[in-house]
Amino acid sequence: MSLTDLRNALPDYAKDLKLNLDSVLSETGAAGLDGRQLRAVAFASAIAGRHAPLVEAIKAFAAEQLSADEMNGARAAAAIMAMNNIYYRATHLIHNDEYGTMRAGLRMNILANPGLDKVTFELCSLAVSAINGCGACLDSHERTVREHGVSAQGVQSALKIAAVLHAVAVTAEQAQPAA
User: Fold this and answer.
1) Of 134, 155, 164, 165, which is the active-site residue?
2) Is 124 a catalytic residue?
């Protein structure tokens, strides 16, 4: 299913999502991000949204500007954040400072060479952390991208991409006829 087909299949009550999808996936709607960053963030966000038709549609959109290594970098960000967001969200929510002093011991070798430049990988990690609801990871990745020159507008654009793609995934999945 193409991105246009997926957008057109959204129900009438989701008209705002259709409009927002077009907006956040345009380079003018994603202020503060370049075309590669926009596509990597969108692909990582679609993966985190877990709706296969959306993932495939965004994969085709992302592949317009991203290399195979960069596509894998977006996949890697979604994968590593699927693990880290659970762990760090849990240790943050437990309200026992002892867990914050303990070594996590989770392998994250992909960080040495994720296939994306550091800033783009961090933007993908930020977007996926927003979808997964990990405040500790959001703080960490937002701080890192800002230290590397990403504007508040760029951060907001990454968050808007994550929000809209997640809403589209939820809505499209819910709107599908039962098999």
Assistant:
1) 134
2) no
